[in-house]
Please model this.
Amino acid sequence: MSAIEEGQDVLLYLDSKRTYLVRIVRDKDFHTHKGFLSMNEILGRKIGDSIKSSTGVRFFLLRPEVRDYALKSSRRTQVMYQKDMAQILLLSGICSGYRVVEAGTGSASLTMILAYYVKPAGKVYSYDIRREMLETARNNLSRSGLLPYVELREKDVAEGIDEENVDAVILDLATPWLVVSHAKDVLKPSSSFVSFSPNIEQVVKTVEELEKHQFVDIRTTENIIRRYRVKRNMTRPESLMIGHTGYLVSARKTGESTA
Model:
């Protein structure tokens, strides 16, 4: 593997709870609660190597994955958790070549994941009404290298979707039920609608609207993941866990017209 160069992003791994996404700049130091790391000492090393901080604590130099960009980039809003993003990919069947409509963009955490899986032949069309959020999203997407696979739209998706014949519509916004009719208009037959909502009242309104517009295979799920602390004769669930984050509503479009 080639040596780490200036301007390259590296994930500094301390332990499973503490990692840092940094861009390597010559003559700079990166400060942590375990001491600072000289970027000059990182330059020329290889991914997978380790380096010690000024206090002698070892950090590993890892290659950032798309999940690291999604979860550690600059943000203005709470990002979606990995467990929900992964389920969205499965429910929607997203793969290379898909054309996907997403709203709202936020800091582009989910946008990055979607773009990573539709590239190189696909495209994500991401809607948000907040210009400042779109600027943050653009910067994050640019850093991750995924901006070429995304088109950002400053528009209220509840007023309509500009694209036609898309393969999936993915929503992370307060009123997903207002978008169902527009999704029905632009989705290819058999294609998927998926929305993420933190409150059950949002789910009820969305499901009712999906039924009204003749969607099928309507499902509502909640993902709970419990991590374990593994050590011989002491293995047990971790004391703290992420509980409820939100509900996922998924459905598929039919060729039937709305009665």
User: Anything to note?
Assistant: The chain has a mean pLDDT of 94. The domain at 9-64 is CATH 3.10.330.20 (Vcp-like ATPase; Chain A, domain 2). Helices lie at 39-42, 66-72, 82-92, 109-118, 131-144, 180-186, 200-212.
